Predict the structure.
Amino acid sequence: MAKRVRIEPIAQIADIATNGALLSGLMGEELSILKECGGRGMCATCHVYIQDGMSSLSPMGKREKRTLEVITTCKPNSRLACQAKVMGEGIVVELPVGMYVQSIQDIEALIGRRCEKPLLSPITGQTLVEVGQLITRSVVRQLENTNFSVGEQLANTKKADVFE
Ligand code: FES
């Protein structure tokens, strides 16, 4: 049987199959969730806050815990929507503000504009460009050393997994 999940701040209701990943409901709402790592719990792009009903979600696994540790916007009620499974009723999800970017080119394409939503790193969830900030070449240059490569991150984490 499906469970009802409320999504804030857009005030949408999603029906998600019991034991289904929270992410499936969010995708159904056609939100721009990147799921950069393909739902493997290794990036920050499906990070959400649970406003209510944390106990109605599956417990957090090691991989999710480790990924959340590197997200700078992580709070005690953070979860990764691809890892958290819906087990019961009463879940209210809050989507973080901002847009995840896949590469430096995504930011380069916006040169000359003011940022309308914070641009976020797919790996750390960190704000790379604030709302209202003018995106210039020097902003892009400053971000050139930022690691956008979720693939690389996955490769490093896989090595660490071996020793668990
Ligand atoms: S899609 Fe990457 S952690 Fe969920």
